[in-house]
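Risk register update: the risk of archive-format incompatibility is retired. Evidence:
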Amino acid sequence: MTQPLGGQDPRQVGPYELVRRLGRGGMGEVFLGRSPGGRLVAVKVVAAELAHDADFRRRFALEVAAARKVGGFYTAQVVDADTDAVRPWLVTAYIPGPSLHQVVRDTGPLPLRALRVLGSGLAEGLAAIHAADLVHRDLKPGNVIVADDGPRVIDFGIARALDGGQHTGTVIGTPGFMSPEQARGEPTGPASDVFALGCVLAFAATGHSPYGQGRPDVVLYRTVHEPPDLEGVPDELTAFVRICLAPEPGGRPLLSDALRRLATSAEDTQWLPGRVAAMIGERRAATLSLRERTEPEPRRAGPEPQRTGPASRLRRRAVPVAAAATLAVAGAAWAFIALQHPFDTAGGTGTSGSTATAKAAAWSGDPCDVTNYTLIQDHQLTSVGQAGGLTNGADRVKTCTWKVGPATVDNNRTLTLAYSTAPFHLITDRKAPKEPANAQLDKLNSAAAYANQDEDRCEIDWRTPDGYAAVLESEPGGSASCITGTRFAQDLAPKLAGGT
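Archived output:
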């Protein structure tokens, strides 16, 4: 849900009046904005500390330029940007609908007609992205918005321009929806997006990835070495989904073939099950009042709130705060690893600074939200989502797992952060590590370090002012030393404690 603007939030970005806060992450902030003509948009503002990084600005400008070439009906397009502003910003289309992940989670798998409309729309959206010489590289249910007139592909933030049709480099994506070549760290091109399309359709039909759930490295192994599980996919689509999931890129269909196989259209809301259409209607209704401007509020004593962009001198306007809306944060160039880290929408109203936001996220949201750009860079982490089945001793333990180094199937080194308001342990067959002094636990409150019997996992746990936290360092082969995990915990602990 959206939040009212805080005292330190800008009220104007370029010509766009900001009306609600949507979230905050390591790369910047996202706001619901209103154009001069009254159209609602998503406004993304780069974090102040990154705005001073010349290399970051260069990458951001390149990706904005590439993403602005993407057209088509089934994508959320970039509508404006200023990469030279004091704090660069980007504006994308607003889509009043839930993500595919939310739809399936809350209402169950989609019926055959909806699957065909979904697949046809996604194929057309990917074709538009590829026509702009981009490859998405992270198509997944969370990056698909379900609207009453068809799906939209969003978040091209980790897309890359195609060099000769393929891209080689650091692997970024989501296990369960990554192609085998992506998982192996090999060149990726349009065929990788076709593979992801097959995974998304299987998810929409069954409620799970065709490569199952569990630890990210296990899911990646299945993707490379095992056939997909397509039980539950309608017979009419099984053959098509299976060929999309061919192990080798050359065995997968072209998007033009996919469009011919799935050809259909979303002429009206009848393509959606009733409960899904109702979800979309609720979101549309919740944002109607935000389209209208209100009279300017009386000028208050004290300094003006911080403004961003060349039009910062425009007058501040009052903002209706009663209506709450879920905005699908429509994507485009959000810098090279920005969208690995979900925006925090759980923080309290009016908080300022990354520390307060991280603390709020930790104890009411997703642990993937508590990191920032510096932590990710310093520890060479790549987000691979939430891990399950690791904890013992508490019912409501929340976890997030990162690869340490490249997110390839050959790299099994991971860090998992977990926290809960009740005590818990990440490993049960614990024993004290051989050299606990090397872990430097004195900087953590009431901390302890434990290794498992095979010494390939090390748990560092500590007490925080609001609960309990732990980091699990996993290094297959018996090389876990607790040092990597402890350094990460030391850097993160002040944020969870509300310090600096």
